[in-house]
Amino acid sequence: MDNIQERRKYIRTDAPILVLIRVKNGENSIEEISAESKNISTVGMMVHISKSLDSGQLVELSLLPSGTPNPVHIKAKVIRSEKVSDSET
Predict the structure, then answer these.
(1) Cα angle for residues 52, 16, 45 (degrees, 5° grid)
(2) Cα–Cα nearest to 23, from 56, 59, 51
(3) Could you tell me which of 74, 55, 58 has the C-alpha nearest to residue 25?
(4) What pLDDT, on a 0 to 100 scale, did the predictor assign at position 3?
(5) pLDDT digits 0-9 by tens, 42-81
(6) CA 53 to CA 34: how far, in whole Å?
(7) For residues 55 and 67, what is the distance between their CA atoms, to the nearest angstrom?
(8) Are 73 and 60 in contact (CB under 8 A)?
(9) How many whole angstroms separate alpha carbon 53 and alpha carbon 81?
(10) Which residues have CB under 8 Å from 23's CB, separation 6+?
(11) Inter-CA distances, 81 with 5, 8, 69, Å
């Protein structure tokens, strides 16, 4: 993937940030997934997780950047979701 020309409008930077993802499963069930971001920009973030999410799915995120005492809570939409091999993680 390193040889693919960057097409993003906003540059991404490697930023390992702890992320708690809350996904609504059905009427009253919420699943929480812990992860760490791989990269981040002003308009997006990449996170590798073991669960498949659908493009367009709404999620709630709690971000805990290092050195920050309180998490940042945001609502987000999954723009792209794809399965990657173990060698790409």
Answers:
(1) 50
(2) 59
(3) 58
(4) 46
(5) 899 999 998 889 999 999 999 998 888 999 999 999 999 9
(6) 14
(7) 32
(8) yes
(9) 6
(10) 30, 31, 32, 33, 51, 53, 57, 59
(11) 20, 17, 30
Consecutive H or E run containing 77: strand 72-77
Higher local confidence (pLDDT), 59 or 9: 59
Give the whole-number percent of the chain exceeding pLDDT 70: 85
Tokens standing for residue 37: 């971001």
Kindly state the tokens that stand for 9: 């409008």
Q: What is the DSSP secondary-structure string of 22-59?
A: EEEETTTEEEEEEEEEEEE-SS-EEE--SS---TT-EE
In this prediction the pTM is: 0.78
Arithmetic mean of pLDDT, 5-22? 84
